[in-house]
Backbone:
């Protein structure tokens, strides 16, 4: 009789545990499945951020075309049609000092004329020193000699790379009477990467100015 009672109680206990486990699994399913579903939906809807490369605005440039410099001066050259020549109005300006303005690019080419009076060496050294003052910010300065014997024009150009305030300078002379210095400035915070297209575009016009330059 005792053995029968023990067996009966064992079966009751086993069934009780089975029922408890079933109820526990039911509760887990009710909580876990909705939670997993919500997580899956969230993962699908979550925006994935992909860093984009740093870029700059595209700049549209006008077509290249040139006209003769029309101001009174002992020299002449061809300037781009989208530039404007105006007299230098600064306090230290001297006769035949002009600014070639490029309004679309907020840039200026400053032209400073000097009469040679047994001081050609001083004028050329002053021009060179002015160019190399930008070496602090420049990554490199390419210095090139320019010669045009048919027009009696000789000089040096300074192509200044990096975040310098003036990316291009030059001087021209006939070695005896005339001397002119040119300095190109963009009226923006120097940033060579963003300004490089503008610099290269205007440098072409400066080289054209030099190649067409002649004395009167």
Residues:
């Amino acid at each position: 009789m005792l053995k029968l009672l023990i067996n009966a109680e064992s079966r009751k206990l086993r069934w009780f545990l089975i029922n408890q486990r079933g109820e526990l699994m039911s509760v887990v399913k009710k909580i876990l499945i909705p939670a997993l579903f919500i997580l899956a939906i969230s993962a699908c809807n979550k925006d994935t951020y992909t860093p984009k490369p740093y870029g700059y605005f595209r700049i549209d440039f006008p077509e290249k075309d040139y006209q003769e410099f029309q101001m009174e001066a002992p020299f002449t050259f061809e300037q781009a049609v989208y530039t404007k020549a105006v007299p230098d109005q600064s306090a230290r300006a001297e006769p035949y000092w002009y600014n070639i303005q490029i309004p679309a690019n907020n840039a200026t080419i400053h032209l400073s004329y000097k009469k040679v009076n047994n001081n050609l060496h001083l004028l050329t050294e002053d021009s060179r020193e002015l160019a190399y003052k930008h070496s602090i910010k420049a990554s490199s300065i390419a210095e090139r000699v320019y010669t045009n014997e048919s027009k009696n024009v000789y000089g040096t150009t300074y192509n200044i790379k990096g975040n310098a305030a003036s990316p291009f300078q030059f001087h021209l002379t006939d070695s005896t009477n005339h001397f002119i210095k040119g300095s190109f400035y963009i009226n923006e915070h120097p940033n060579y990467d963003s300004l490089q297209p503008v610099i290269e575009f205007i440098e072409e016009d400066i080289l054209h100015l030099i190649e067409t330059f002649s004395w009167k």
